[in-house]
Amino acid sequence: MKIIPIQFHQKSHSYPRSAPGGGGGGRRSSGPARAVAARSREPQRGRYSRAAVRRAASSATQKMKEMFKINQFNLMASEMIALNRSLPDVRLEGCKTKVYPDNLPTTSVVIVFHNEAWSTLLRTVHSVINRSPRHMIEEIVLVDDASERDFLKRPLESYVKKLKVPVHVIRMEQRSGLIRARLKGAAVSKGQVITFLDAHCECTVGWLEPLLARIKHDRRTVVCPIIDVISDDTFEYMAGSDMTYGGFNWKLNFRWYPVPQREMDRRKGDRTLPVRTPTMAGGLFSIDRDYFQEIGTYDAGMDIWGGENLEISFRIWQCGGTLEIVTCSHVGHVFRKATPYTFPGGTGQIINKNNRRLAEVWMDEFKNFFYIISPGVTKVDYGDISSRVGLRHKLQCKPFSWYLENIYPDSQIPRHYFSLGEIRNVETNQCLDNMARKENEKVGIFNCHGMGGNQVFSYTANKEIRTDDLCLDVSKLNGPVTMLKCHHLKGNQLWEYDPVKLTLQHVN
Ligand SMILES: [Mn+2]
């Protein structure tokens, strides 16, 4: 049996890091090619000149490393690439011939930034202007979340004044975080649709029309483009996969998972049709401006960043909307391995608080999967959620069980299960423990600590034993018991519990 690996895995950031082998992979962008050309001049022969070239090269490398730290991407490479560079057309063939209505709604493009590099921010702006039909762009709104860099003040304002699309720069008075800065940007925007982009993106040909067309068709549809990968090292542009969609694990981390067969069947195998996705990555999406208000924008009680993407995803689905990845729309994003930002109080506590609010308001009893695997979360002060609970009632939103059943039946959180907790050997008082090991490794046994976390397993209605998104699996006689991606097909992942003998037995 074939296990489809998850293509994207990342600890602290909710975007794919590596591109699967898509159509754009392997193509060289103009920037790094130019850097290579500059190096190709033959050094003169001779000991001293060679040493000088080596010294120069090593000091350039040193400088590149220093500059990398500023934004956690290769700033030197970014600065060598034109602000209006051309990009490959990475769309599926069937997308290139699609015809969209003329009278699509207009959009405001809202981009929040904090200490962003000039080159990546302006490349985002130029790519919007160059690759969008002029009459569909109402304006671009740049929301500065209290940046400290001088070039992002007056120089930015005078630069964008000369562009052929109105660009407004608005400033947060103090560091407010992504969520509140986006709310401010949305509040001043005038387009019929709001399109949120990150500050280090590049839009490709034809990106906007298919997004707006879905919203025109149904204003309660919220749409994301396929997020392509701009290398944080070379700025090479690589197509993202149309075969993954958004999910989440028990820790409420956003993850990309393979688009399941049922969603391929619903689209009759046509990959150019939008994919219904359980969640969005969060950085890039378009939404009808009035609908954004109706469904309650963002939870303004959340701080800075984190959890807001799952919150709006659950809310859209549970309250009668639709969330899609429009596979004919491609926007690139620079994926970073580490965040260059610091937050007052540290990121961990902020994300715990935001996730706690999201679990309390939207997840009903299924919040226990989150709390038992991350017990620290139940200790954070998450503030007052009464207005968000009120919103849920006012909009008559459906329960989380409905979402799991109908929108995300392949969820890592099982809709039906027999038990959730530790698996204890009653004679030795030792417990099964995932030992924080990864996929394909053996499950461990350790003294029971009663603190949840790595000793939490669920015995599901499908008779799987799961810990987060891994299932206990035995593929040969006499073991070992390994942890593999759950495949929902029973087989090697089927276990029988005998409540009389208190045994769990692998039955395949
Ligand atoms: Mn980003």
From TrEMBL:
Pathway: Protein modification; protein glycosylation. One of its GO terms (molecular function) is metal ion binding. It is a single-pass type II membrane protein. Keywords: Disulfide bond, Glycoprotein, Glycosyltransferase, Golgi apparatus, Lectin, Manganese, Membrane, Metal-binding, Secreted, Signal-anchor, Transferase, Transmembrane, Transmembrane helix. Belongs to the glycosyltransferase 2 family. GalNAc-T subfamily. Its cofactor is Mn(2+). One of its GO terms (biological process) is protein O-linked glycosylation. Residues 415-508 form the Ricin B lectin domain. Gene3D superfamilies: 2.80.10.50, Spore Coat Polysaccharide Biosynthesis Protein SpsA, Chain A. Its main location: Golgi. Its EC number is 2.4.1.-. Residues 7-50 are annotated as: Disordered. Catalyzes the initial reaction in O-linked oligosaccharide biosynthesis, the transfer of an N-acetyl-D-galactosamine residue to a serine or threonine residue on the protein receptor. Has a broad spectrum of substrates such as apomucin-, MUC5AC-, MUC1- and MUC2-derived peptides. GO terms for cellular component: extracellular region; Golgi cisterna membrane; Golgi membrane. This is Polypeptide N-acetylgalactosaminyltransferase. InterPro entries: GalNAc-T, Glyco_trans_2-like, Nucleotide-diphossugar_trans, Ricin_B-like_lectins, Ricin_B_lectin. Residues 29-38 have a biased composition (Low complexity).
